[in-house]
């Protein structure tokens, strides 16, 4: 089994890179704090006998040799970047859990048949550069490297330049790196495991998700002299549209989700009726057909409100990730390991996207969930129990060993 | 009469200071472009024989001596700052119209009994530093100098520091400057004069206006894993509140106005349910009692939506300007001058706030409106006819001469 104390210490230690006063982490992809945690990752894995490299997307690979190094590696991974008001576990547990596995193998003097690689994927959150899971997406062949390296953040900084700046733009072309299997440990980020008092979620797959940007154009006008009937108010229209996004989700209860996370309004003066508003939309559902119906309803509602409010409106799709079903053999490795270790468990579908979604395109993949406090995530208050973190890492260790013997 | 050609040339010349590609002006108060137009103002008035000074709020005074310089001056003024997407006339016509009056007096060799002063008031728009009419408010005794100089813009820059930086922080204490009368020429910024084909609006007063900031607090949460029923979504709540502000205005049609001009949302990530939103509210009505009723309804609607959406909400009033009735004698000077010059006219109430609102607290005051294209203002497309600008400056000249003989 893994050393749960060392795992917890790593979690608390790395939380200082970008740590916030409220106990969360603000470690946007390719920021200086991200560079610091990357260096820590490389040094820690090297000390455990790994070769540490990174590819053209900045993905880091820590490789522990196996008996047969001509075999593709079994990969364990997740991400070390966070949301602007993120927590200490989202993504991080999956990478540090991988290090816990390395440490357990090291201590027990085990050499696996396959090499083992721990991966830290670049820009999973999609908070700095959209879309999320960008670098694992290049690895999985879903995005081209040129597209991904050309993404810009809201300040106009290009991903490729940000990678060069922190020194993590590697020469190995991203994606030319086969894997025998991929396992990702993650907090659930939802309330189910905690509510049902189960320790392990055996993840069957990931729901479908679609992102859009809506641009609303009205006319700048004086707030004191323009009669209500003569306005073309982009923000009033956007407000009614946001209510519409909410309704789309409610109309597809209980599984449908709809979120507006970013809104920008111009010219942003208290006494000017806004002439232009942009906002993001995130729609999700476990069933791709229902998600398609949600998109149709969403488009109709936006058009209806544009007409009611007398504004122009344009919807740009920015990301589509279809529902994913993980590899039955890998899922079996997770289930059997949890069973053998005596943990309570249940099957579960992920509401959040994960690097595993895209790695699943090129390698047999599965995920392990552990509970988190009240299901809260993407929040500085995100929290998990040390025992659950240890349990997750133990299942990860045994799932990898099971896959190694196939 | 004034030289309309020279007036128009001044309007087009000064429009280059902060001129935008779309033909508008972005000349925020105390910006470098504001400094440039201030220097132009000082030089132009000095060339017409004026003494040019500025006070501790950066208000500029160009003084033309009269026969009896122990008398307080008759003031003509408005502002040279603009909205971020402002036009070439809002405020500017009132200052440059004053210069046109100076030029007419100069050419005709007239010496008035009172000294004449042309004033450029600092930060009228309220776009960079809230509230609007800040420096004329100090002049009128409505705000203290300490309050006004301590206001900060959205980047955190303090007004006093911005004044020092551009070199317009004077030693004369703002407000210690009596006036015999005050006249302000302005575009209507509304549709009435154009629609009725009248050249001159004889302004009776200004409607009441109140500003608020609404702060909504929910909880950051993951957009993919948090069920709709478990969210505390600050932006969804704000959207419903913005619809509520609109309804308050509609419930007090046709004169009630309600505008949300600025919205800020945190943490601003596509896949995070927003935990905090702030927005501004601008409510207006010509009748203070109705405006009070609008405020009550507004407060109730905000509370109702906070309850519906499960968020916390706080309203902070940021500005109150009661309805104003101008001085009957000064209004009479405007009406009689327009009549004598043969212009079509009508009485009108201003929907926008003006420096005249606060100067009226300490001096007999009136305003003159001229039509603007489609009533559009606070917009780069703001436009006015040369003949109307000339007509307004002519009425200004004759109103000043009429007041001078009283
Ligand atoms: N795990 C996680 O929070 N990923 C971000 C992508 C998403 O929005 O689901
Ligand atoms: N004239 C003008 O646009 N003033 C700004 C103050 C207001 O919002 O009415």
Short description:
Chains A, B: Zn(2+) 1 binds at residues 79, 90, 186. With 406 residues, chain A is of the alpha+beta class.
Account of the 3D structure:
Chain A is of the alpha+beta class and about 400 residues long. Helices cover about 35% and strands about 20% of the residues of chain A. Chain A is built from twelve helices and 16 strands. In chain A, strands 1, 2, 3, 4, 5, 6, 14, 15 and 16 form a nine-stranded mixed beta sheet that branches. In chain A, strands 7, 9, 10, 12 and 13 form a five-stranded antiparallel beta sheet that branches. In chain A, strand 3, helix 3 and strand 4 form a beta-alpha-beta unit. At the A-B interface, strand 8, helix 8, strand 9, strand 10 and strand 11 of A face strand 8, helix 8, strand 9, strand 10 and strand 11 of B. The complex binds N-(aminocarbonyl)-beta-alanine (2 copies). One N-(aminocarbonyl)-beta-alanine sits at the interface of chains A and B.
């Amino acid at each position: 089994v893994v050393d749960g104390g060392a795992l917890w210490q790593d979690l608390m230690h790395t939380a200082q890179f970008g740590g916030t006063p409220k106990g969360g982490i603000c470690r946007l992809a390719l920021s200086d704090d991200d560079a610091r945690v990357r260096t820590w990752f490389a040094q820690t894995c090297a000390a455990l006998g790994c070769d540490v490299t990174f590819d053209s997307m900045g993905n880091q690979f820590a490789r522990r040799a196996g008996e047969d190094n001509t075999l593709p590696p079994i990969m364990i991974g997740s991400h070390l970047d966070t949301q602007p008001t993120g927590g200490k576990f989202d993504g991080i547990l999956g990478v540090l859990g991988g290090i816990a596995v390395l440490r357990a193998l090291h201590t027990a003097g085990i050499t696996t048949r396959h090499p083992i690689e721990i991966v830290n994927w670049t820009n999973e959150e999609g908070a700095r550069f959209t879309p999320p899971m960008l670098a694992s997406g290049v690895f999985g062949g879903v995005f081209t490297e040129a597209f991904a390296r050309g993404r810009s953040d809201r300040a106009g900084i290009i991903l490729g330049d940000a990678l060069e700046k922190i020194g993590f733009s590697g020469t190995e072309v991203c994606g030319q790196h086969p894997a025998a299997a991929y396992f990702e440990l993650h907090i659930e980020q939802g309330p189910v495991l905690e509510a049902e008092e189960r320790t392990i979620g055996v993840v069957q797959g990931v729901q479908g998700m679609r992102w859009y940007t809506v641009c609303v154009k009205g006319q700048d006008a004086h707030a004191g002299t323009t009669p209500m009937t003569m306005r073309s108010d982009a923000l009033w229209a956007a407000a009614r549209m946001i209510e519409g996004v909410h309704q789309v989700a409610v109309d597809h209860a209980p599984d449908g989700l709809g979120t507006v996370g970013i809104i920008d309004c111009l010219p942003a003066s208290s006494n000017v009726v806004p002439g232009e508003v942009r906002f993001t939309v995130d729609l999700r559902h476990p069933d791709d057909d229902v998600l398609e119906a949600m998109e149709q309803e969403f488009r109709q509602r936006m058009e209806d409100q544009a007409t009611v409010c007398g504004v122009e409106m344009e919807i740009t799709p920015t990301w589509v990730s279809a529902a994913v079903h993980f590899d039955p053999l890998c899922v079996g490795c997770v289930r059997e390991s949890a069973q053998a270790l005596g943990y309570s468990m249940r099957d579960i579908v992920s509401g959040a996207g994960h690097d595993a979604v895209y790695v699943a395109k090129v390698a047999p993949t599965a995920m392990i969930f552990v509970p988190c406090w009240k299901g809260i995530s993407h929040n500085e208050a995100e929290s998990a129990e040390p025992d659950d973190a240890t349990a997750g890492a133990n299942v990860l260790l045994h799932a990898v060993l099971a896959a190694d013997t196939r």
